[in-house]
Amino acid sequence: MTRFIFKRLGIALGVLAAATYLFFLLAANAGDPLDDLRASQQKNRDELIAARTAELNLDVAVPVRYFYWASDAIRGDLGTDYRTGQEVTDMIATASGQTLKLIGFSSVAAIVLGVMIGVISALRQYTGFDYGVTVVNFLLYSLPSFWVAVLLKQWGAIGFNDFLADPVIPPLALLIIGAGLAVVVGAAVGGKWKTRLLAGGASGVFAMIVLGVMSATGWFTDPSLGPIVILALGAGFAVAVTFLSAGLGNRRALYTTLVMALVGGVAWFPMQTAFGYTDGLVAFLQLLAFIAAGYVVGLLFRGPDKKVSARAGAITGALVYGLLWLDYLMSWWLPYNETAAINGRPIATVGSSTPQLSGNTNYWVGTLDTYTHMILPIMAIILISLAGYTRYMRGSMLEVMNLDYIRTARAKGLPERTVVMRHGFRNALIPLATIIPVDLASLIGGAVITETVFGWNGMGKLFVNALHEANTNVLMGYFLVTGVLLVIGNMIADILYAVLDPRIRVDA
Q1: How many domains is the chain built from?
Q2: Residue 471 resides in a domain
């Protein structure tokens, strides 16, 4: 493995050197960094042109200029922005932090949803659900990202903000939502038509009741969960986590997750005080405490495989803490929405924060402001990425579920959950594990169109601005960072493939 890594690293460095050289040639000829000075009417224009020419080495041949830049880059100096004098490393650090906010949330959500939908679609092959997912996937593939972003601005921001002015859901809308959910759930559940009808009908009626109560009580303007809802949702998470990770037949794991759900309901009362002193670091430590508590509870219940119970308890603990944190965040929604800067229109269409709130916010109001600005670009990236992950997972799962060892597992009488989750699902993740690192690395380069439409000052926007200004140092800094990340992503993908699939011989 060590020999393989060093071999791949050597190849990657050669590719990166050649790529940066070619990109430097393109960037140097992409525009004239002296355009603004040539059009200037200042008396010292010639002196300014001479100074910038010397600063950017414009009087030197482009290939030689590349080696000047490369020698500085090796020492960690990426130069400065000739317009502002700001260090390129500082600009990239700020822009990449903004991009990581979007990529972190959207990528995790797209991967989780894509894997889940892809697995269900594969298990329900040639059903109405499978055909529906296929149609939606091809639709999302074909939609231009800028058009998706504009639609989200219109309906996700402007439309929803108008709805909040009078947040009442009419009966016809409730009926349509309930019927749509019933069809989707019924198709996803599969089985006999009675089972589908019961599951779909129950889901649709439940959704109508919940939305009707939320509409009647004004929940959309002053949302909250409360200990009872947290306890109920925690119990649902407990059953789902146990089913997926251990199977409902593992009673010790089920008891562990249910205890953590109960802990969440009881912890609501002391956490109302604790959250009053919470910031980002404290919230992270609280999350770790709930994860550790779930792990310990699982070990205490022991059972035939105590690590399975501990893992299920830790996952449930994290989910329960998320509910508690979300509930307290909701309690700040009304004061945030009523501030003069927001004025009852909380979902933002542009930017990464509300300038008028700067310096006058606590952790919770600042978090709400950040999330309301992130929600639309995150949704845009999810919709664009979701189709790919769904199709990859569906195809991989179909291939695995038709292999001989799956038939053998079923012939041995193993439960279908065990066959799907332990034998099928794990092996179906191998192709996806080689794709995700590369996708994430490329996304960190910035969702150029999405960031431009939503005015998000991330890596994509940095690249566009630098290209317009013929700012070679910034362009090269951007390309170097994204290129290194892509090289690392490719190496991780190769290593993961070799680790997950023992048939791959890396030292051959």
Answers
A1: 1
A2: no
